[in-house]
Design a protein that fits this description.
Elements: H1 11-22, H2 27-36, H3 48-58, E1 62-66, E2 74-78, H4 80-91, H5 103-109, H6 116-144, H7 150-182
Antiparallel strand pairs: 1-2
Amino acid sequence: MPEPRTRKLTATSYVVLGMLSYSPATSYDLKQWISNTIGNFWAFAHSQLYDEPARLVADGLVAEEVEEGGRRRRTYSILPAGREALRDWLSAPTDEQTEVRDLGLLKLFFLNFGTRKDLLQLTRDRREAHRARADAYEEQRAEIVDYADRWQVKTMELGIRYERCVEQFWADFQRELEEEELR
């Protein structure tokens, strides 16, 4: 067995370790699970899910089993050192600022260079996008509430609240603009 490397683990490292804590998986399995769960609130390139497990194997945190025939699929499982790394990360302080990357807010910031029509369209589009996302989260929550763990359900609840709050911001802003037109 190769000597484990020491490198700083990334958020993707912890995503993989966390998902493997539930069950061994191939990179494809990880991609599917993540797109249906944390992919709702944590965006990253899916290609990372094909590279990161191999790095974690080299780090001595994950084991790899290669299928003998056929496609020679690689199934990964977490090792005790990986569980310890995950627990250390979970117990570390989380004081980073929340990063908001919202194209609608970016456009709004620069809309003094656009038209009123652009502004009205932006408010309608963003309101509808956040409403649709909140509705989808509510449907997803209803599907998982009976079998997901309590903390997975809580992440969905925050997603719903966030989307409803932002939807309300755009609705209020749209109403404000419409009232200005009536004056």
